[in-house]
Structures are given as structure tokens and as C-alpha cells.
Amino acid sequence: MNTSPTAQLAAFAAGLRFDDIPTPVIRKTEDLLVDWFGSAIAGKGSRPVETLTKFAASMGPSDGAAEVLIDRSRSSAYFAAMANAAASHVAEQDDVHNGSVFHPATVVFPAALAMAQTLGSSGQQLLTAAVAGYEVGIRVGEFLGRSHYKVFHTTGTAGTLAAAAAAGSLLGLNAAQMQHAFGSAGTQSAGLWEFLRTAADSKQLHTAHAAAAGLMSACLARDGFTGAAQILEGPQGMAAGMSSDADPAKLTDGLGTRWATVETSFKYHASCRHTHPAADALLQVMQVNQLTPADLERVVTHVHQGAIDVLGPVVNPATVHQSKFSMGTVLGLVARFGHAGLVEFDQHFQDDLTVALRDKVVMELDAEVDAAYPRRWIGKVTVTTTDGRTLQGRVDEPKGDPGNTLSRDEITAKAHRLAAFSGGASEAEMARAIKALWAIAQSPRIGPLLAGAA
Amino acid sequence: MNTSPTAQLAAFAAGLRFDDIPTPVIRKTEDLLVDWFGSAIAGKGSRPVETLTKFAASMGPSDGAAEVLIDRSRSSAYFAAMANAAASHVAEQDDVHNGSVFHPATVVFPAALAMAQTLGSSGQQLLTAAVAGYEVGIRVGEFLGRSHYKVFHTTGTAGTLAAAAAAGSLLGLNAAQMQHAFGSAGTQSAGLWEFLRTAADSKQLHTAHAAAAGLMSACLARDGFTGAAQILEGPQGMAAGMSSDADPAKLTDGLGTRWATVETSFKYHASCRHTHPAADALLQVMQVNQLTPADLERVVTHVHQGAIDVLGPVVNPATVHQSKFSMGTVLGLVARFGHAGLVEFDQHFQDDLTVALRDKVVMELDAEVDAAYPRRWIGKVTVTTTDGRTLQGRVDEPKGDPGNTLSRDEITAKAHRLAAFSGGASEAEMARAIKALWAIAQSPRIGPLLAGAA
């Protein structure tokens, strides 16, 4: 039992110490933390996020050590994790790990921050917990495979284990306790893509659920509550129920030597990541050939099957959020504005010009792109111009990927833009909080990020 | 969209009124309520239940209108539903619906009671909500089918929708809101059988999660939070992800004419329901032939595949709870004591004599029993005696099934036994509470069931 893949992964998460983590991994984790903070603040004012936060306030205590970022209220760790996780995913600007198609930040940091604030953990403990959460969640996502992602929102499912690993690290769970926490987290693992078909609010519920259920699982394990020993690869475990191509070897791939955390990509466009490679490829072909939107007659995006599965149902997006899952809308905005940010979606997703461009875009399955996915997200487009030319665009790493990453200045600027968009914090508040976050490895005790800033 | 099976089921749950429900269905629902109350009180002192309740207390408010039954504390509806649902399933004495292999009471009543106490609903509203929860949960379980149950604990998965229907009924959700509540509940649907392999505590987590997540989904829908329109039968919904033999016609089977609530069985033995038909068949053959345990050389139980799937992994049970999933242990206790109740499991599951009998019992797949399952749970055993006889035992309806049901006196006595076992309430407290529950249809406002009883 103790050498099963689940047991090895749990032992790794439980045993991870700050001094074991290479410095570049720590620096990247700080980047991811600041990037996440901006996304969390960006959730303010979003109807589904506010509704979930109202629910948490109505069912939780009226005070506590953990901070609800969008309204600066305090609650128990459980509800703060729930509310902050709901907030972090709605702008579609939070990070993503390509190989697992998993968004780590939105489930890992809400659980880690809430638990760290509750326990009075140090910054180094918080960073260590975040790395544990990223390494576990990414491997679980890779393990569950492409068949899983066709129906399940991996961030919701693998997210419960990622959040459990992060919270469990801060609670100081031993290897056996961490394995029990994984069992409890995995058996609460949930999240279906069906909501996309009617543009429903479930994506925020999935992250809220994953962060809260994962944190709960870690707390229960500390108190002796047991879970399945092999919730991931067991014959009636997650893979048995929710995947047809799961590979247990992925669970332990390079533990302690391969740092999956640094493979995580930042999102540049405010849309579903599946649209980014094609968007960057279209930008490239338009810049190289000096095209304007009026030059576009037809745009064929050559994509992997996962893009068709997730984006295919979205033909005529009815809401801003749904439009972020419309390949045509994203490319229409990129063609018009050179990027597809929160403001562009919010104000222009239904413009006549955007809609006209949207309807010129089609997706076609591409063998090379599909074979490279999910490890590499290649962008390929074929543009037919109104004057009859056929032009090819291609990017091998979309902006924000590890080989084409964002600088700390770009990350800081992005967080400021997100806060300005939502009104969740003033520029001065953001500057103060971000400065503290860049120095978090020196913090002896994590307090509120926006303390006294109301 | 409005004529989809999910939409029809949601409209039924939202539109159900007390006066629409035939009187025998109401009376049966009162039976189920009293039977559930005994099971909830029986959870007191159980380590996993106490641990979950401690978690709820640590993360929830210190007061509220909803009652946590095992410790008479008060909390918000969310945490009371979570704690009471954890408590109701641990004694394995709560009710079951055969056709869906779904335990309705443990998820429906905790959500309904917590919401009714919070809203100050009437007894008639509570009973109506319970019927809505039973009718929905049972149909969802039937819809998900046998393939689902091989890996998933249907009470955890279908339970989220059952709890949402009950809570949503009390909240007065309209049909569209109820459909959104179903979407949010279904996308949080979870629960894997893997925990049985190591006798872990997850069963209590599954019911706690289902009741809390379902109640949450109803509250969110009231506040405008949307869910998938076809979370059950949609191409990326529950069936797509978690079943290979789902039948959407089951979702709307006889809505308003067939009352699935009255098909629910009470549990007589304190073990997994899959053991009951064989236990009753063994009792029958022993009584008819006046056998003693010493006469038993070998007992072949002729069972359905689901029994083998769930009970097969349990060869040498290490805990009281696991022993309730051991066909051999259950039959050993029945042979020794004439029944397998909480006391028998607690004090005798590891006796030498029980273990010796356990090892004489085998399961064999039986074509007739398997074909009748899950609508009918036939019990068939072949006993070889030490003096060389081969004897057959058979029951067509195990004790507690609708055709072989418990009287109100038997239900009351069972609840008293459960409370006496756990020490969760005194005999006088139970008598007072049960008397009030039998008269609940006349209650203008649901208050605490154990008020002033501490």
C-alpha cells in the first residue's frame, strides 16, 4: 500500500520542505501568487461570484482569521477558500498548466491562503504549500487524461486534491494523513462541462467546491478521518469512474526532480486557454502581412480535439463569459484590438463587427496540433483574405507559456489592470499588497492581504 | 429545453403541493421520517460522525436556527444538514429504495429539516419537500443505472439532486430555478466506492457532502445562480461522465402518478442492504429445518452482480463498519442470534464462532436473482449441513420491503433501540420527539426536535 502511486504522491506532498525547493521554483511560485491575486480581485462585481460569496456569508461565521478578498470580510478558512476560489476563475485570466489542462492557482492559493491566515503560517510555509498543491494537482490532471477532460472540468476534479495537498502541507500532515486527505478529496471530486451549453455559472461553483472540499479533507485527516488508500488508481477510484485513458505513472513522474510548477503558463488573453494559440497565430499573420480586420474573408484554425470539445458547442455566445469560449469571438476581438482583454470582451463581444468576424472563423482538427497536445499548445491558422490570398500563421508557444513568459513587471501590470477593471482594490492598495507579496518569502506570519484597506 | 427530462423533473419538484400527494404517500413519508430520526440519533459517538460534526462546528457559526441532532448544538442550515447527514448513514439502518439502490432518508431529511427549521416551515411543507426529494433522488438513481453503481455510491451522487429538490421545495423555487438548482447539484455530484477497500470513513462524507451541496444549490438558485439545463442527460452531464447504461425515460417515469416514495424499504438488519435477502433466506431455512449454527457446513448465497461488486472485496473485515459489508459476517450473526443488529455487530463481529461461520459462506452469481435486481431483491441460499443434507432457502421480499414492511410500532421500537445503542437521546426524549413526529402534518412551524432536551 505504501508504494502505490497515491501513497508516493501523498508522501511527497507531506514531506516537502521549503529548503528542498530550488530557488527558481520559489521565484516562479511568487510570480504565480501575484498573478493569482490579481485574478482573485478581478472577481469583484461578478454576479455568480457575489452570489457565492453571499451564500458563504449567510452560512458561515461573521468573523474569523481568513480573508474574503472581494469584500474584505472575514470568515472561517472553509468559506474564505470557497469565496476566493469562486472569485479567481471568473475573469479567465488565472494561470494554466498545459499538460494537465488544469488551472492550479484558482484552487491552490485560496485554500493555502485561508489556511495560512488561520494558522498564522509563515510566507515560506505558504509558498511550500502552494508548490505541494501545484505538483499534486498537475500530476492528477495529467493522470486523469484526455478522456476525463472531455466531460469533466479537471480544475474542479483534480482541484480537490490540489487544495487538499496545499492545506495539508500547512497543517503539517504526515504521509499517512495526507493519503487520507487525498482519499476524502478525491471522493468529493466533481465538475461537469455541461454548464457551458447554456452559459451557466457552474465554473465558479467548481473552483469554490474544489478549494473548500480539499481544505475540508485536509482538516478532517488531521483529526483522524480516513479516506480510501488509492482513490486515484484503485479499481473503484477516480480513474475507474471518470477516465478511460488514465496513466498511474503520471502521478509520480519526476517527483522532487521535475518541478511541474514552473511549467505553468500565465494567461495573456482573457479567454479560455484553448483559444490562445490560434489567437496568437492570427495576430502573427496579421502583423507580418499588415492585415486589417476588413482583409479577413475566412480564418481556419487548426486545433486539437480538446478545443473542439470545449469550444464547439458555443456557436452564438449570449453572455460575456460564454463569449470567452467562442473561438470566433476571441479571434474577432484579437483582429480588431490586437488583444482580447476584459474590457474588449465586456464592451465589444456582441458588436456587429465582432459578430461578423466571428462567423468567418471555423475550427478544424489538425493532426500535428492534436498529437503535440496537451504538452505543447501549437497555434496554426490559415487566413483567406478578401483579395484572394491564402496566408499561414503559426506560433509554437503562446504568450505566457514558459518559453514566452511574462516578466514581473508584466505580471504586476496585469494585476493592476484586473483590479482596475473590477474596482476590487485601488491602485494604491494593489501596489501595497503586491509589494508585500513579492517579499512574502520573508514574511514570518501571513496576515490579511488587504488589511485596513477598506 | 423546457420539455427535457431534467426540465420535467424539476417542474414536478417545484410544483408539488401537499394536497397533490395521496394520503398513503404522506403516511409512508411520516414512517420514513421517524425511521430516519432514529438513524440520525444513532450516529452519536461514531468517530467519523463526531469528526465531521467537529469540523462543521469549527467552520460554521456558533448559533443558528438549524439543529445538529447528535449534540443539540445550533448552526446554519448548511452545516446542520452536513452533520445530520453524516450521522444518519453510519448505523446502516436508514432506508433504501431497491430499484435505484439509493438511500433517500440520509440525504433528503437532513437538508429538509435544516431548511425547514431555518425558514420556519410547516410540517406539511416539510413532508412535501421530503416527497419531492424522494421522487427526484430515486428517479435519478434509476436513471444512472447499474454501471454507475459499480463505481459510484449512488446515495452520494443522486443525493445532491435529492437534497436540492427537498431544500428547493421549501424555498419555493419555481420550475426554472429548480432546474438551475439541479444543475448546480449535479455538477457537485460525487462519491466513489474505493473507500470500502480499506474500510475508510468516506460513506459519512458522501452523505454529508450530498446534503450540504444540494442545500447549497437550492439556496444559490433562489439567489439567481444558474446551472446546466440538462445536467442529467446532456452530452457532458452526469450520465455522460459517470454511466454507460443511463436511461432518460427513468427520470420522468410516472411523475405524479407513480409514487416512488412508497416503494422505499426499511432496513431490518444493521448491514449493507445487499446482505439482507440472503440473511432472511438463511433465517427461513434454519427456522423451517430447525437448524443451529453447528449444523452449517457450507452456505452458498445466490446473489446479483451488484452484491458481488460491493461485498466481494470484503474478505476479512477489520472494523465494525466493514463487517456490515461482509456477507459471511452478516450470515454468521444471523445464524447465531436470529438477527444482525447494532449490538450484534458491535460485540460479536470478530468472535471465533462468527469468523468460523463467516468462512463457510460464499457468494455465487445467480441468473434469476440478477435479472430481477434491482426491482426485486430475491434471497436464495443453499445450505449444506454437517450431516450431509442440502437445503434451499428463499424469500421474495426481505423484511422491511413494501410487501413485508414494518408497522408503526416496529418503526418506533427500532428508533428507540437505535437511540439506546448510541446514547444519543434518553427514552423519554425519544418518546416525546417521536410522538411529535407522528403528528408533524399538524405542525404549523418546525422547531428543534430535541429542544430543551439537553
Automatic annotation (TrEMBL), chains A, B:
Entry's Gene Ontology molecular function annotations: lyase activity
Domain MmgE/PrpD N-terminal: 8-248
InterPro entries: MmgE/PrpD_sf (IPR036148), MmgE/PrpD_sf_1 (IPR042183), MmgE/PrpD_sf_2 (IPR042188), MmgE_PrpD (IPR005656), MmgE_PrpD_C (IPR045337), MmgE_PrpD_N (IPR045336)
Stretch forming the signal peptide: none
SUPFAM superfamilies per UniProt: 2-methylcitrate dehydratase PrpD (SSF103378)
Domain of life of the native organism: Bacteria
Domain MmgE/PrpD C-terminal: 269-439
Protein family membership: Belongs to the PrpD family.
Protein name: 2-methylcitrate dehydratase
Lineage: Bacteria, Pseudomonadati, Pseudomonadota, Betaproteobacteria, Burkholderiales
